[in-house]
Design goal:
- The structure is a single chain.
- This protein is mainly alpha-helical.
- The chain has one domain (2-279).
- The protein is 68% helix and 0% strand.
- It is built from twelve helices and no strands.
- Helix 5 crosses helix 10 (194-215), helix 7 crosses helix 8 (103-137) and helix 9 packs parallel to helix 12.
- The longest helix has 35 residues, at 103-137.
- The protein is globular.
């Protein structure tokens, strides 16, 4: 039991909580700036559109128009637990627990707990941002509305009921970031500089946004490139830059993208374990 509790201590520390708090503060500052620069801050808009609070909240996750929130989430991911695993490995602080649990078991448990913690932290951040937006910027109301076709942001992306839609958005976005966090976890086998690794999530996030656009011209079916765009996991249906590839629904796009990233994650983790076994 002591060995298992030790794996949680990598996250449960004052320093890590302070880091999460700092990133949350930066997110709130970004949210306030976005609100002040948006149409939602104009006089009378919230009275005219009852769901303005929800519209504003969803707009925060649009990577194309509000990349700062996405960058801060990607900055947070490697620092939730992955960095501590890398740091303990390089300091040989995990040697005894590797011996007791076996190295394969230790890294598998760390891998899973990193996913769980990442999802929980992102979910908490989403809820806190919603609460702050509701209390101080744009009150959130749940009123069914009929939006014109092609409207830039709706409050019924996945379900016709706003409350269910919001809960689904919370969960699916948190799962998406948690999955990306699992890929970042395995990158520590390649990125051994601790300070570079702390920031590697931002670099990876930018690449995953731009990569589909860069390769689409080289594919027989250009639309297929956008099935792997990270927007499908963390900003589902919010961008409105183009129609969904192949006419797929939002759920289908999310499911396909989630499956692809899951396979990439498992493949990277296998390479990570092989490298740890053979070179460390």
């Amino acid at each position: 039991m002591k060995e298992h509790r030790f794996l949680w201590k990598a996250f449960l520390s004052k320093e890590k909580l302070i880091l999460c708090l700092v990133i949350l503060i930066l997110m709130v500052i970004s949210m306030i700036y976005s609100f002040q620069q948006s149409i939602f801050a104009q006089a009378g808009y919230q009275q005219a559109y009852p769901n303005a609070g929800l519209e504003f909240y969803y707009s925060l996750f649009r990577i194309g128009t509000n990349p700062i929130l996405f960058i801060l989430f990607m900055l947070l991911l490697p620092n939730i637990m992955s960095y501590d695993i890398l740091n303990m490995h390089q300091n040989h602080a995990s040697y005894m627990i590797e011996v007791r649990l076996t190295r394969q078991h230790y890294y598998l448990e760390s891998f899973i707990k990193n996913i769980v913690l990442s999802g929980i932290v992102v979910l908490m951040m989403e809820f806190i941002l919603l609460a702050i937006s509701h209390l101080f910027l744009a009150p959130v109301h749940f009123q069914s509305m009929s939006y014109p076709e092609g409207y830039y942001i709706t409050t019924q992306l996945l379900f016709s009921h706003e409350v269910i839609n919001l809960i689904a958005f919370f969960i699916m976005t948190a799962l998406g970031y948690a999955l990306v966090s699992s890929i970042i976890f395995s990158l520590q086998a390649l990125i051994t500089n601790k300070y570079v690794y702390r920031c590697c999530g931002v670099i990876l996030g930018i690449l995953l946004v731009l990569f589909p656009a860069l390769i689409q011209g080289y594919l027989p079916v250009p639309e297929a490139a956008f099935l792997i765009q990270i927007n499908n996991l963390v900003a589902l249906g919010l961008e409105h830059v183009r129609e969904n590839p192949f006419g797929f629904s939002h759920f289908m796009i999310y499911g396909i993208c989630f499956l692809i990233y899951s396979m990439i994650s498992l493949f990277c983790f296998q390479l990570f374990c092989i490298r740890r076994e053979n070179y460390d």
